[in-house]
């Protein structure tokens, strides 16, 4: 068994009114750690995965478009592009109409990595949802979507 490093998590666990907050924290921590390990083993930083998926859906994009879609600052995108370009996942080129704009697209290696990432996500879903009936899976999905909507209402 695992020893709890934080007294705060024990407080959440003991107090009934915080049981959901504690469960969400534990799910986030456990799933995040597993995904981090898996992605690092694949050779991609987990923070690069949303960028990889976005480019796979949209094709070629400017760095400004990527920043807007991922809700990050342009310098963050620039660093991500540099690292992913070095790893061979993306290729950058100047826009024909405006040389100030860099256009980014996935390379073949980037597309292969996307497939590997999706394979892990699908496998993780199978593990997470094993022993759930189809009805329970549908209900869980509905509940989680409602929770996400409710979280967005928190000031």
- Please state the structural category: mainly alpha
* Sheet having the most strands: 3 strands, antiparallel
* Count of DSSP H/I helices: 7
Provide the residue-averaged pLDDT.
90
Q: How many DSSP-defined strands?
A: 3
Largest sheet: spatial strand order: 1-3-2
Shape: elongated
N-to-C SSE string, H for helix and E for strand: HHHEHHEEHH
Note the gap between the termini: 37 Å
Instruction: State the helical fraction.
Output: 55-70%
Radius of gyration: 19 Å
Strand content: 5-15%
Contiguous low-pLDDT stretches (5 residues minimum) are: none
General description of the model:
The chain is mainly α. It contains 7 helices and 3 strands. The chain has helices at 7-14, 19-42, 49-58, 63-70, 74-87, 108-128, 134-152; strands spanning 61-62, 90-94, 102-106. A 3-stranded antiparallel sheet has the order 1-3-2. Helix 4 packs across helix 5 (74-87). The chain is elongated and about 60 Å long. It starts with 6 loop residues before the first helix and ends with a helix.
């Amino acid at each position: 068994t695992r020893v709890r490093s934080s007294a705060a998590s024990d407080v959440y666990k003991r107090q009934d009114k915080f049981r959901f907050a504690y469960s969400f924290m534990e799910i986030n921590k456990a799933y995040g750690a597993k995904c981090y390990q898996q992605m690092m083993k694949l050779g991609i930083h987990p923070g690069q995965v949303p960028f990889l998926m976005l480019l796979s859906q949209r094709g070629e994009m400017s760095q400004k478009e990527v920043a807007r879609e991922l809700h990050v600052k342009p310098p963050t995108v620039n660093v991500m592009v540099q690292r992913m370009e070095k790893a061979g996942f993306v290729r950058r080129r100047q826009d024909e109409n405006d040389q100030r704009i860099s256009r980014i697209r996935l390379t073949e290696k980037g597309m292969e990595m996307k497939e590997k990432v999706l394979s892990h996500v699908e496998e993780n879903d199978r593990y997470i949802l094993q022993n759930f009936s189809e009805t329970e899976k549908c209900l869980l999905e509905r509940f989680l979507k409602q929770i996400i909507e409710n979280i967005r209402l928190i000031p």
